[in-house]
Amino acid sequence: MDRVSTKKILISGASIAGPALALWLGRCGHDVTVVERAATFREGGGAVDYRGSVHREVLARMGVLDTLRGLDTGMGEQAVLDEQGRELLRLPASFMSGELEVTRGDLARTLYEASLPFARYVFGDSVRTLTEHGTGVTVDFEHGPTQDFDLVVGADGIHSTTRRLAFGPEEAYRRDSGWFFSTFSAKAPSHLGLRDSAVLWNDPGRMVGLGNTLGEDGAMLVFHAPGLTYDHRDVAAQKELVLRRFADAGWEVPAVLRSVPGAPDFYFDSLSQIVMDRWSSGRVVLLGDAAWAPAPGGMGNGLAVVGAYVLAGELATAPDHATAFARYEERMRPYAVKCQKQGAGAGRFLAPVTAKQLKQRNRAYRLLCHRTMRGLFEWLTTRTAEAIDLPAYGLSVPSRAEAPVISQL
Ligand SMILES: Cc1cc2nc3c(=O)[nH]c(=O)nc-3n(C[C@H](O)[C@H](O)[C@H](O)COP(=O)(O)OP(=O)(O)OC[C@H]3O[C@@H](n4cnc5c(N)ncnc54)[C@H](O)[C@@H]3O)c2cc1C
Q: 35 in a domain, yes or no?
């Protein structure tokens, strides 16, 4: 493999993008540290899906495709309900779940475990300052000792600290849609008879999805509240906010809400996108939601693993990091823009704001489910998922036997 030199690289964030990149960089012989703010590995999150040959190829090259196939949720049809809970129509499984659907927790754990032999993980810490100098970046951590790195990668999500330190405040880059979403483990009322299936309830501006897969029940709530502000670190306040927003909702929503206070995996965020005109600054580069969050529906998980592969590949083949970062951006930007375009309509699609818009959405669902139109939606989303040429780079599938010995802290 053509590579200039091995480097000491810090990755901030251990969810999807971070571990995917750690796997590749460690395999290429770099000295990789991943720092994650959470005290332990973060479980939780709803179902995420992969579609098309590009996603399949990257996961296969990483050596995780078969493991993920074994974790497929097996989600079946999803029934769309009216405000009173009466069934209006059924969406085919592939409509929402793509060709491979896993829970975010299972995906993150698979990538974390695959990368563990190739990278050092530090939990419960965060970068505090980044000071770039001629030959590297001096990183001051909130808890650990100050260290020098050759390169720093921000894979720390939509509220990235790395981005704030290297590019400035989040407000300059975050585009809010006005919709918010939350996922958590929830007990589904048994009379709904959910087994490998889901129901989607709406009233104007709100959605409650309740599903059962792999023997577990889970909920996804979406609501429209333009201008709403929240603290992205204060989970207790987020739970209160969700409870208030759905307090007067009908159907089985009160039963769903009873799971909120004790939900250990409660996740809440806005349906927002990150739009930047460059993803690197000197020796610092962004990856995943930190760089291009597309919002749910924009295939953020696919973008994260494809981006990790491309960044590692460009670093392996370019003469220096500046050229690698430029080529990574050139290759990934058109792809990220297409995925963002797809994710931009997620809120309107999931929780239309008025009764009229809700009716129109349901009409569109009916049309897309019709025999003659079936497959159109899948075709459109798969076309977006495949809208990048994947270079070979000569990166080989990592094997545990080849891994260096790395002592975890
Ligand atoms: C617990 C969880 C649940 C989620 N559930 C869903 C879901 O149900 N549906 C959906 O569409 N998307 C969900 N997401 C977001 C989804 O994972 C991303 O949109 C996508 O996979 C891109 O991944 P990413 O690794 O770039 O960013 P993210 O998955 O957002 O991961 C960022 C990681 O960086 C960590 N981090 C943040 N700040 C710092 C810091 N200062 N220092 C170190 N680490 C830091 C975070 O704790 C997190 O582990 C969830 C994310 C998380 C973390």
A: yes
Ligand 1: residues with CB < 6 A are 12-18, 35-38, 42, 44-46, 104, 126, 155-158, 161, 183, 267, 288-289, 296, 300-301, 304
Q: What is the atom index within ligand 1 of the atom nearest the CA of 183?
A: 8
Instruction: Give the DSSP H/E element, type plus range, for residue 19.
Output: helix 17-27
Which residue is listed with tokens 């924009």? 298
3-state SS assignment for residue 133: strand
Query: Tell me, what CATH number does 338's domain have?
Result: 3.50.50.60
b/e 63-91 (16+ beta carbons within 10 angstroms → b): bbbebbeebbbebbbbbbbeeeeeeebbb
Domain membership flag for residue 332? yes
- Domain assignment present for residue 408? The answer is no
What is this structure's pTM?
A: 0.94
Pocket test for ligand 1, best of 156, 177, 184 (most atoms within 8 A of CB): 156
Ligand 1 atom nearest the C-alpha of 161 is 41
User: In tens digits, what is the pLDDT along the chain, a chain of 409 residues?
Assistant: 334 478 999 999 999 999 999 999 999 999 999 999 999 999 888 889 898 999 999 999 999 999 999 999 988 889 999 999 999 999 888 777 778 999 999 999 999 999 999 999 999 999 999 999 989 999 999 999 999 999 999 999 999 999 999 999 999 999 999 999 999 999 888 898 888 899 999 999 999 999 998 889 999 999 999 999 999 999 999 999 999 999 999 999 999 999 999 999 999 999 999 999 999 999 999 999 999 999 988 999 999 999 999 999 999 999 999 999 999 999 999 999 999 999 999 999 999 999 999 999 999 999 888 777 777 777 888 889 999 999 999 886 556 566 565 656 5
Residues 107 and 48 sit within 8 Å (Cβ to Cβ): yes
39 Cα to the center of ligand 1, angstroms: 14
Distance 117 CA to ligand 1 centre (A): 22
Number of separate domains in the chain: 1
Domain hosting residue 202, numbered range: 8-399
